[in-house]
């Protein structure tokens, strides 16, 4: 259709991939048109205005609350907005984003507010909440199923068109960098959601920050590699623990166990949160146990 909008199937021509600006690198993301519905609005103003003029968009479904997926909400003021109930409060009040990134009362938090202003983000009223396995009417004899995939955020959702087996996997994005750097993230849920996506046996997968992936085997291979990337992080973190000498979070931060280098303060904060998510998982699995009176440090079990 043009350089940033393309149909994904000759048979299902009403399903179109919308390539995000700057190769869908933050603060942009890919979107998907499916019938009368648009999934996510992070593709950039130019692409989204073309979507608005080319398609009759009646519904906008938001996969989750992160800023790089909401940037074009203002362009579709007449559409009905849908999102999961757990992410609804933040989408409706974006001033909460700083809290959920643990940026409150920091210079990084002030910088983040400036970024959201530059992106022209605003509060978006959610007209309908969605839940796992809900079938959304998108017209054109298409059946869009909600796949609840928490972990990246508490209310993160993916989507599957049942006839074509085309899936939108959102921020289980098949890059080399799984992200769970918000306080509402959960690492166990994150891994379980990836496995849930593998079980769908999609023909085509649309990630938020990478190009379309074709073929069930290739999609499942890349989903498995996404899990392996997390496992390698766990291994790096556990190398800093022993059975005798306690380790605490301050011993682990700024060691680049997740980010190879910090390009901005936000990444240092996100690294700390993600390390904490690993520690929570280690505790649940009894790989480590608290040590010390205040239980602020841990040893291997």
Query: Which radius of gyration do the C-alpha atoms yield?
Result: 20 Å
Give unreliable regions as ranges. Answer: none
> Assembly state here?
single chain
Average predicted confidence as pLDDT:
95
Helix-strand sequence? EEEEHEEHHHEEEEEHEEHEHHEE
CATH superfamily of the largest domain: Ribonuclease Z/Hydroxyacylglutathione hydrolase-like
Separation of termini?
Answer: 58 Å
- Number of self-contained structural domains: 2
Annotated CATH topology of the largest domain: Metallo-beta-lactamase, Chain A
Q: Strand order within the widest sheet?
A: 1-2-3-4-5-6-7
For the largest beta-sheet, the strand count, sense and barrel status come to:
7 strands, mixed
> Helical amount among residues, as a percent range?
25-40%
Overall CATH architecture of the largest domain: 4-Layer Sandwich
Present the secondary structure layout.
Blueprint: E1 5-7, E2 15-18, E3 31-34, E4 37-39, H1 45-54, E5 59-61, E6 80-84, H2 88-92, H3 97-100, H4 107-118, E7 128-130, E8 135-137, E9 143-148, E10 157-161, E11 166-170, H5 187-198, E12 204-207, E13 213-214, H6 216-238, E14 247-248, H7 249-252, H8 265-284, E15 288-291, E16 297-300
Parallel strand pairs: 4-5, 5-6, 6-7, 11-12
Antiparallel strand pairs: 1-2, 2-3, 3-4, 8-9, 9-10, 10-11, 12-13, 14-16, 15-16
Helix pairs in contact: 5-6
């Amino acid at each position: 259709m043009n350089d940033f909008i393309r149909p994904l199937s000759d048979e299902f021509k009403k399903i179109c991939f919308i390539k995000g600006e700057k190769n869908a690198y933050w603060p942009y993301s890919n979107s998907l048109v499916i019938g009368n519905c648009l999934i996510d609005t992070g593709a950039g103003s130019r692409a989204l205005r073309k979507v608005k003029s080319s398609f009759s968009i009646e519904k906008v479904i938001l996969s989750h609350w992160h800023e790089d997926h909401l940037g074009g909400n203002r362009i579709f003021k007449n559409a009905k907005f849908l999102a999961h109930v757990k992410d609804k409060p933040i989408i409706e009040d974006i001033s909460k984003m700083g809290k959920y990134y643990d940026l409150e009362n920091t210079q990084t938090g002030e910088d983040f507010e400036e970024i959201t202003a530059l992106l022209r983000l605003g509060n978006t009223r959610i007209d309908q909440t969605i839940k796992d396995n809900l079938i959304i009417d998108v017209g054109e004899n298409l059946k869009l199923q909600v796949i609840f995939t928490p972990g990246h955020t508490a209310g993160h959702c993916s989507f599957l068109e049942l006839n074509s087996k085309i899936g939108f996997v959102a921020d289980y994005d098949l890059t080399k960098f799984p992200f769970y750097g918000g306080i509402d993230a959960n690492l166990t849920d994150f891994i379980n959601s990836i496995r849930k996506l593998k079980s769908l046996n999609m023909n085509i997968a649309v990630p938020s920050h990478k190009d379309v992936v074709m073929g069930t085997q290739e999609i499942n291979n890349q989903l498995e590699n996404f899990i392996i990337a997390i496992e390698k992080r766990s291994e790096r973190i556990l190398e800093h623990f022993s059975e005798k000498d306690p380790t605490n979070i301050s011993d682990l931060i700024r060691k680049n166990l997740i980010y190879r280098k910090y390009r901005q303060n936000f990444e240092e904060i996100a690294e700390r949160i993600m390390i904490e998510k690993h520690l929570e998982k280690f505790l649940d699995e009894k790989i480590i146990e608290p040590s010390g009176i205040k239980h602020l440090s841990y040893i291997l079990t």
